[in-house]
């Protein structure tokens, strides 16, 4: 299906978005098939970000390569912009000392925990809101979502996500 735009279109209109508003259906049906693609969401374990190798010498990963996440907390683009600011700031500091590899290491140290938190929060949010693996536990998951997640956890997750400040592009040093 990933290489056949007509199959992608059928999957979206007949299954995935069947209950979406008619306006959405109309837009999807009029898409230029030459521009349509299908790519799976990728999950990276948060502890891989915390414990794994993210940089080596003068090479590092950033954006989705560092922290792919589901769209459930709407932070993918924001996190990539944060990466850019933190990366440029650390590289500028390191460049003035002639130590680019140290600048990348500093960038990774600064971003590691934030990225792991975003991945975990996004996954948890999506998993709970979509009913987990439901099955025989459907009523338990609905109870958890209604009585625990939305009352206590959801707002704390979003507060933590939105209170983050990556700082200025170039700090005065």
What would you call the structural class? Answer: mainly alpha
Helix content: 55-70%
- Report the major sheet: 2 strands, antiparallel
Number of strands: 2
Strand line-up of the largest beta sheet: 1-2
Q: What's the helix count?
A: 6
Principal-axis shape: globular
User: Which value, in Å, is the CA radius of gyration?
Assistant: 20 Å
Integer tally of domains: 2
Arithmetic mean of pLDDT: 87
Q: Strand share of the residues?
A: under 5%
Q: Tell me the distance between the termini.
A: 53 Å
What's the SSE pattern? HHHEEHHH
- The low-confidence parts are none
Protein name: FAD-binding domain-containing protein
Family: Belongs to the 3-hydroxybenzoate 6-hydroxylase family.
Keywords: Monooxygenase, Oxidoreductase
Pfam families: FAD_binding_3
Structure description:
The chain starts with a helix and ends in an 11-residue tail after the last helix. It is mostly helical. The model has no long low-confidence stretch (mean pLDDT 87). The chain has a two-stranded antiparallel ribbon. The protein has helices spanning 5-16, 22-29, 46-51, 76-97, 100-129, 138-162; strands at 55-56, 59-60. It folds into two domains: 5-35, no CATH class; 46-162, no CATH class.
């Amino acid at each position: 299906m990933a290489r056949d735009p007509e199959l992608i279109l059928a999957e979206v209109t007949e299954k995935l978005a069947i209950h979406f508003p008619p306006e959405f259906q109309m837009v999807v049906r009029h898409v230029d098939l030459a521009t349509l693609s299908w790519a799976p969401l990728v999950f990276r374990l948060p502890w891989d970000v915390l414990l794994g190798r993210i940089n080596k010498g003068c090479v590092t990963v950033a954006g989705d390569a560092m922290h792919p996440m589901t769209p459930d907390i709407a932070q993918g683009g924001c996190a990539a912009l944060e990466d850019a600011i933190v990366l440029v700031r650390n590289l500028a500091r390191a460049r003035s000392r002639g130590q680019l590899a140290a600048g990348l290491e500093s960038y990774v140290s600064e971003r590691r925990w934030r990225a792991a938190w975003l991945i975990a929060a996004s996954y948890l949010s999506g998993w709970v809101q979509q009913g987990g693996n439901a099955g025989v536990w459907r009523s338990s998951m609905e109870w958890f979502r209604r009585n625990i997640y939305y009352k206590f956890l959801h707002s704390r997750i979003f507060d933590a996500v939105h209170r983050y400040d990556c700082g200025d592009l170039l700090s005065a040093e």
